Request: fold
Amino acid sequence: MPTRAPICANIMMRDEAPTAAWAVLAVAPYVKRVLVFDSGSIDGGLESIDECKKYESNIEIYHLKNLPDQTRWTMNSEYPVSPEPPSLKVGGVRNMMRDASDTPWILTVDADEVWHKRGMIELLNFVSSLKEKTDCAYVPLVWLAEDSHTQCRLASPHIYPWTGRLFRNRP
Reply:
């Protein structure tokens, strides 16, 4: 069993059944806590997260209410203005996630991202080497599936060379 890092993995999801359990179980053995924020999944994704709790005791599920449409919390340019109060937009949800985190570091994970064991070990080593003045780390991501909301199918890799995923949790 690897040493758990002082990291809280925060995962937002809605109807991500094809990949959510993989995303959770890929990070759970390496971090202190995994917080899953769900906005009303109806595809069995939450049930798969409940199954994950049999293997890892550090997984918690938060049920977000009054999020009628996933587009309300994504920063999709087709929806530049949302009538929902700020607490229901992506920034508000991220703030809720931060407030629920009690570790020095927060790792933001999408429910369709699966971290490889080697990547998690490198992340743990990286975190232990960081100086106090470091507040954010960018990591390379490669997505191998497309359109996880309707079906999971392999696709040409989408490479996002550097994406902000690790943040210092400052009071």
Notes: The CA atoms of residues 18 and 149 lie 8 Å apart. The longest strand covers residues 153-168. Strands lie at 5-13, 31-38, 59-63, 105-110, 136-146, 153-168.
